[in-house]
Amino acid sequence: METSGPNSYQLLVQSILDYAIFMVDPQGRIRSWNAGAEQIHGHRAADIVGRAFALLHTEEERAGGRPELILHMAAAHGRFQEEAERLRRDGSRFWAHVVCDAVRDEHGHLLGFAMVTRDITERRMTEQRLREVERRFRLFVDGVTDCAICMLDPSGIVTDWNAGAERIKGYTAAEIVGHSLTRFFVNPLVAQTAMTVASENGRYDVVDWQVRKDGSRFMAEIAIDAIRDNDGQLLGFAKITRDITARVEAERHLEDTRAQLFQSQKIEALGQLTGGMAHDFNNLLQGIIGSLEVVEMRLAAGRQDVERFLGNALDSAKRAATLTHRLLAFARRQPLAPKSVNLNDLVAQIAELLPATLGERIRLELDLAPALVPVLCDPNLLESAILNLAINARDAMHEGGQLTIRTGSVPPGEGPLRRPHSLRDAPTLLLQVSDTGVGMTPEVRARAFDPFFTTKPKGRGTGLGLSMIHGFVSQSRGAIELESEPGHGTTVSIYLPSGERRSVRALDDRGGAGTRWEPAAGETILLVEDEDVVRDLIAGKLRELRYRVLEARDGHAGLAIIESTERIDLVVSDIGLPGLTGMHMVEIGRRRRPDMKVLFVTGYAETMPEDWTLDANTDLLTKPFEFDALVARMRALLPGPLKQASSP
């Protein structure tokens, strides 16, 4: 076995440090020893060569004849290999991977054995740690009973099954391992989709029905994760299933409870609304009925001094009309005439009138952002909203204070949490009214927009101001926010969509109450109104002013006149007509008369398209109206200068 001198092969073997390589004769004595053997076992060649290789084995193996068995097995089969403990010179042990090859000459005579040993202690420790981690993980997974956790191979076959899966789905591991995932889904296509999406995106989440062993169904929250190795190769899937049937039923019960509560609140609000409305209307009707009874009694007695009582009846009727408009505003059913409004100009005009309303102890400050785009809304209702907010602020500042009106623009994507979806990605205008008054408690703030709710003393305020503003803003496709704390004042923020569809007509060229008009120049008016009393009154008054009036009681009759050869200078039409609405009538009629001028009158927004806006040949007047206001709107549409009779 010994060689006469070193050659290149021996030099190569001697230079290897990661492996212990040595030769053993047929009797088990070590005949050569490389540097790797010295490094791994700790013995120098001079100390170990010639000694039995059994010295490298543990005492237990030597006592059991393990070294001799290794040589016997290698001689019999040509090779023997194992992983076992070996000794170092200092007596410490390490794990080794050992290969023992029998070496024979050309005649088959056994010359000895080539031993190759590699220290695998670190690998074995890593494997042990991994096994321990796996053991603990398996204990953890098996200990989870509220979730079904299972492992799947790449084709969706179950390979592992925890105790939670057995409890939730009813199958034991022996019954389910080796079966396809699809058997748990009511719809097998969902399972296929889940694995496809998980393999492509790494994860798939779904809430779906699952099936138990007994055939019963349950609502499940399912997560499927793709498991890959470091090279990205798909190893399988981890599926976690949670039974959420009880939670879903609880949420459904809670939703039902909320719906019942909401219904109860609606009934309560409706009762409050009808009660407040009945109270106010009864007072107004009493004023009207009582005044007219006095007029009737005096006229029957031949007395003519009835003007005061007629005035009282008319005043009560006007207040009833105002209350109706407020109720429609609260219900978001008031007719709107949206126009393109310069917000800064409108605020500045109102600000000129406010000092007299606010009094000397309240300072008014305007903070108007420059270069604002126009806002799309009904300017008259916006003026009313600002005035209402200013009056509320005044009443909240008993000892005086400051009222601030701000304007600004809100970039797309910003603004209030309750901002309508239509405003989230569009330019929005902000109108903000702030005061330094007493503020509101959380309880008052929560009810601030409720109809007929007021904290003012009895006889002051109807409780419809803020609810009317809220309704107007919502109907204008805007949003409103209220911030208030006791002792820190109140801020109301109104968000409205921008728009440049039409400028506001000047209001000073329209007559108001008490205006006397010159006789008309013979213009022809088509009056379309389904209420006979209303139509007769309007037609009679227009004829007194020498207008030529054509009457129609529904949309079809009105359209027939429009499509005739009659001269028509202006159409005055109700919107809510039977059969054919006023707007539809005009839409069809303008195919024949594209420049036809139209004044719509209505008292209810349900008959109006949600996105309706005015144009140059169209205006809107809300019922009930005074006759002078009707004539003013007509003259604004008709050609020629506005003529008012001179005072006598």
Explain what this protein looks like in three dimensions.
The protein is an alpha+beta fold and 648 residues long. Helix content is 40%, strand content 23%. It is built from 20 helices and 21 strands. It has a 5-stranded antiparallel β-sheet, with helices on both faces. Strands 11-13-14-16-15 form a 5-stranded mixed β-sheet, covered by helices on one side. Helix 10 runs antiparallel to helix 11 (307-330), helix 11 crosses helix 16 and helix 13 (379-396) runs antiparallel to helix 16. The N and C termini lie far apart (148 Å).
In short:
The protein is α+β, with helices and mostly antiparallel strands and 648 residues long.
Rg over CA atoms: 48 Å
* Beta strand %: 15-25%
Uncertain runs: 329-333, 501-514, 644-648
Shape: elongated
Main β-sheet description: 5 strands, antiparallel
Structure class: alpha+beta
Q: Numbering strands along the chain, what is their spatial order in the largest sheet? A: 6-5-9-8-7
* Number of helical stretches of at least 4 residues: 20
Number of strands: 21
Instruction: Output mean pLDDT.
Output: 80
Helix content: 25-40%
The rounded distance between the terminal residues' Cα atoms is 148 Å
Helix and strand topology:
Blueprint (H helix, E strand, L loop, with lengths): L7 H8 L3 E6 L10 H7 L3 H4 L10 H5 L2 H12 L1 E9 L5 E12 L5 E10 L1 H23 L3 E6 L5 E4 L1 H7 L3 H4 L11 H14 L1 E9 L5 E12 L5 E10 L1 H56 L6 H24 L8 E3 L1 H16 L3 E7 L6 E3 L1 H18 L4 E10 L10 H4 L3 E8 L6 H5 L18 H11 L3 E6 L5 E8 L26 E5 L3 H13 L3 E5 L2 H8 L7 E5 L7 H8 L8 E5 L15 E5 L4 H11 L11
Parallel strand pairs: 11-13, 17-18, 17-19, 19-20, 20-21
Antiparallel strand pairs: 1-4, 2-3, 3-4, 5-6, 5-9, 7-8, 8-9, 10-12, 13-14, 14-16, 15-16
Helix pairs in contact: 10-11, 11-16, 12-13, 13-16, 18-19
